[in-house]
Amino acid sequence: MAGFDKVVTSYEEAMQGLEDNMTVLAGGFGLCGIPENLIGEIKRKGTKGLTVVSNNCGVDGFGLGVLLEDKQVRKMVSSYVGENALFEKQLLDGELEVELTPQGTLAEKMRAGGAGIPAFYTATGVGTPVAEGKEVKVFDGREYLLEPSIKGDFAIVKGWKADRYGNVVYRHTAQNFNPLVATAGKITVVEVEEIVEVGELDPTQIHTPGIYVDRVILGTFEKRIEQRTVKSA
């Protein structure tokens, strides 16, 4: 078992090999299911010039938003960016390159990258600025764009449970983009709330097989709520 054990005990070890100008894929949706401690380690390391691919860029002061504070992100590939004032400022000031991508297309780009598919056709974005500079082909009388897939140097993922072989289970909506991200990184690092022994996870319930995972670390999480709505008494 020792040769297959993927558990590491420090965030420094978890993110070993991350260098300037790499591409990092990050799981999560809003602040749900984000690898908040792995993001924190990137900030601590001070790695710069990063291209970050994620549904969004967190919020001011939390999630991926903390990487904007020291201008560690050179380019952001996202489908939604409306919750971060610093993001807006850096974009308008020309300090941050942004590639807005339809959400379903973004998900498929990472899924395809993980599956070894270099590109795919989709009808989403035809006739819009999304189509600029892209090949268009007609199938059954309908136009489709050729979209390249996405792969990353690192994939950072938040799971619920994992075993020592790196098999991962996500909890409810925190699954979101995480399984797609996990398949598409040259190095995939997963932080989880609980590590169990091999054999304790039901094989039929595993969302990400351990073959995709390089490192697993046990973390504690704030799980901040992005938009809190309460009912008055």
UniProtKB/TrEMBL annotation:
Q: Which UniProt keywords apply?
A: Transferase
Which domain of life does the protein's organism represent? Bacteria
What GO terms are given for molecular function?
A: CoA-transferase activity
- Keyword Chloroplast on entry: no
- Alphabetized Pfam families for the sequence: CoA_trans
The record's SMART domains line, in alphabetical order, gives: CoA_trans
Does this entry carry the keyword Transferase?
yes
InterPro entries the UniProt entry points to: 3-oxoacid_CoA-transf_A, CoA_trans_fam_I, CoA_transf_BS, NagB/RpiA_transferase-like
Residues annotated as signal peptide: none
Q: Which residue spans adopt a coiled-coil conformation according to this UniProt entry? A: none
Q: Which family does it belong to?
A: Belongs to the 3-oxoacid CoA-transferase subunit A family.
Q: Which NCBIfam families match?
A: pcaI_scoA_fam
The protein in question is named CoA transferase subunit A
Q: Give the species.
A: Marinomonas transparens
Q: Give the source lineage, highest ranks first.
A: Bacteria, Pseudomonadati, Pseudomonadota, Gammaproteobacteria, Oceanospirillales
